[in-house]
Design a protein that fits this description.
Number of domains: 1
Order of helices and strands: EEHHHHHHHHHHHHHHEEHHH
Radius of gyration: 26 Å
Oligomer: single chain
Shape: globular
Largest sheet: 2 strands, antiparallel
Length: about 475
C-alpha cells in the first residue's frame, strides 16, 4: 500500500483536473545546462585567429625573438604575427636577417596552425583529450572543412591533419636532400623544415641565408620543383586530393573536384604564358635567361603568385601590366577548404558557370551534367561582390594615407594582403605605420572574411514564408 505524501514548500504539484481526491505526485524537474553556442558561431574563427595573433605578437615582442637589443617594435611584431597566422607572407623586416632562430620558430608555429585552420586544430585537440563535439559544433566544422556530412568528422579531421603533416614531412625530406649539399647538417634541417611548412601552407615566408632569398634558386630545378608541388597540393585542398587518389577517374569525380582541377590547370597555364609573354624581354626579370629557364620560372611564378607569394624575380621590376594581371590571380586564390586565400577557385568557378549558363539562355547554372543550387550561386556572388568592395576600400585607404607611391603598386599590395598571397613590389616595408595597420586588417579579413561569410550564409539559409509580387527592372 502506497504511503500518503504531503507536498513540501517549493515542490511543484500536478493534479488531475477531474480527480482532486487523487494523491499528489512529486514532479522532479531536472535542469540540464545548455551548452554554449559560442563555439558553434562563425565568430569563433575570428576570436580564435585573433587570439592566435595576440599570442604570436607577444612572443615576437620578446628580445629573444629578434636580433638586437630591447623589445621588438609593436607594429613589426603585430604585422609579422598577422602575416604568419593568415599565411600571407608580407613582411616589414627580412625574416632571415631580422628574426633570430627563436623568432623563426614562433613564425613557423603560427604558419602551421594558421594554415591548417583553427577548426581543424580545435577538433583534433578535442579528439585527443576525449572531448565531446556537439551537433552545433559539428555543423560549424562541416562548413569550415567544406564537407556535406555530419558523420565521420572525427575521422575526417584526423585524416586532414595526418595528410597535411605527411606531405610536409615528405617535402622536408626532399628539401633536406638538396640543402644538405649547400648548408651544414643542422642548417639544412632547419631550412628544409621551415620551407616545407611555408611551402605547403602557401605562407610565402623565406628564411634562406642568401640575401636575395628564393631568387638565389632561380636556376635550381629541384628546389623550385619541390616548392611547386607543395604549393599546388596545399592550394587544392584535402578533399580534392582524396577524390583523385581514391577515384582516379575524372568522370567519377565530384563536381567540386572537377571544377577545382580544371580551374587550377587553366589558371596555371594562363598565368604561365601571361608572365612569359609580358616579361620575356625584360632585362630585370626573364630577359637574360634561356628559353627553357624562362618557361620554368614563369610556371613557378604562376603557381606561387596566385596563392603562396614565393618569388624568384623582383616584382618591383616587373612590368606594370604583369603586376596588374597578377592581381586577378591573387584575388581568385586557391581552392575552398585549402590553406590558400582569395575568394577561392570554387567561388570563382561557380560565378563563371552561372555567367556562362546565363549567356547560353539557361535559367539555372549547371556544369558536367550537374545543376548548382541557386543558394550556392547567390552565396558565391555575395562573397565576390563584398570582396571586390573590400579591395576597393583598402586600395583607396592606402592611396589617401600613403603619398608618393604609384597607384598600381598600392593596389598590388592591397590585393596581395587580401588574397593572403604575400607578393610585394617592395612597398610594404616602406609604408608608414598607418599603412601597416591597414594591411594588418586586410590580411585578417582576407583570411577569415570569405569563409566566415560563407558559413554565416549557409547557417542562415531558409525558405521564405512569402514572396513579393514580381516587377521587371531595366538592365543594360
Amino acid at each position: 500500500m502506497r504511503e500518503a505524501w504531503e507536498p513540501k514548500p517549493g515542490d511543484r504539484v500536478i493534479r488531475h483536473p477531474r480527480q482532486e481526491e487523487m494523491s499528489p505526485v512529486r514532479l522532479t524537474v531536472t535542469t540540464r545546462k545548455v551548452p554554449s553556442r559560442a563555439f558553434a558561431s562563425p565568430l569563433i574563427l575570428i576570436y580564435a585567429f585573433g587570439g592566435l595573433i595576440t599570442v604570436g605578437t607577444l612572443l615576437l615582442l620578446l628580445p629573444i625573438s629578434h636580433r638586437g637589443t630591447g623589445f621588438t617594435p609593436f607594429v613589426t611584431a603585430l604585422f609579422t604575427a598577422t602575416s604568419a597566422t593568415t599565411v600571407t607572407g608580407l613582411v616589414v623586416q627580412d625574416t632571415a636577417e631580422y628574426w633570430t632562430r627563436t623568432g623563426q620558430v614562433f613564425i613557423l608555429g603560427l604558419m602551421f596552425v594558421g594554415g591548417l585552420g583553427f577548426m581543424t586544430i580545435a577538433t583534433f585537440l578535442l579528439i585527443l583529450i576525449g572531448g565531446r563535439i556537439s551537433l552545433a559544433q559539428r555543423l560549424l566544422v562541416r562548413e569550415s572543412l567544406g564537407v556535406n556530412q555530419l558523420g565521420g568528422l572525427v575521422r575526417i579531421t584526423i585524416g586532414i591533419v595526418l595528410v597535411a603533416a605527411g606531405i610536409q614531412v615528405v617535402g622536408f625530406a626532399a628539401l633536406f636532400v638538396r640543402f644538405s649539399f649547400l648548408y651544414s647538417p643542422a642548417e639544412a634541417i632547419w631550412q628544409a623544415v621551415f620551407h616545407a611548412v611555408s611551402g605547403f601552407n602557401n605562407a610565402g615566408f623565406v628564411a634562406l641565408k642568401e640575401s636575395d632569398g628564393m631568387a638565389a634558386f632561380q636556376e635550381d630545378e629541384l628546389v623550385l620543383g619541390i616548392m611547386f608541388v607543395l604549393i599546388v597540393l596545399g592550394g587544392i585542398g584535402y578533399w580534392v586530393m582524396v577524390d583523385v587518389v581514391k577515384v582516379r577517374k575524372f568522370s567519377l569525380f565530384t563536381l567540386t573536384t572537377k571544377l577545382v582541377l580544371i580551374m587550377t590547370a587553366a589558371l596555371l597555364l594562363i598565368g604561365t604564358f601571361a608572365f612569359l609573354a609580358f616579361e620575356y624581354q625584360n632585362p630585370d626579370t626573364l630577359g637574360p635567361l634561356p628559353v627553357e629557364r624562362k618557361l620554368m620560372v614563369s610556371l613557378f611564378e604562376s603557381a606561387s603568385g596566385r596563392t603562396a607569394g614565393f618569388s624568384t624575380v623582383d616584382f618591383g621590376k616587373t612590368e606594370q601590366h604583369t603586376n596588374f594581371f597578377f592581381t586577378s590571380l591573387m584575388f581568385i586564390g586557391g581552392a575552398s577548404a585549402s590553406v590558400a586565400g582569395g575568394i577561392k577557385i570554387n567561388t570563382f568557378a561557380v560565378v563563371l558557370v552561372a555567367v556562362l549558363s546565363t549567356m547560353k539562355g539557361r535559367s539555372r547554372a549547371s556544369a558536367f551534367g550537374r545543376e548548382i543550387p541557386g543558394a550556392q550561386v547567390q552565396r558565391a556572388m555575395v562573397i565576390g561582390a563584398l570582396s571586390i568592395g573590400l579591395v576597393f576600400l583598402v586600395a583607396l585607404a592606402l592611396v589617401v594615407s600613403q603619398s608618393g607611391f604609384d597607384f598600381i603598386d598600392l593596389f598590388f599590395e592591397s590585393v596581395s594582403a587580401f588574397g593572403t598571397v604575400g607578393l610585394s613590389t617592395g612597398l610594404t616595408s616602406e609604408l608608414s605605420s598607418s599603412g601597416h595597420v591597414i594591411l594588418i586588417v586586410t590580411m585578417f579579413v582576407g583570411r577569415l572574411g570569405p569563409i566566415t561569410i560563407g558559413i554565416a550564409l549557409a547557417q542562415q539559409t531558409r525558405r521564405d514564408a512569402y514572396r513579393y509580387p514580381q516587377e521587371r527592372v531595366t538592365i543594360g
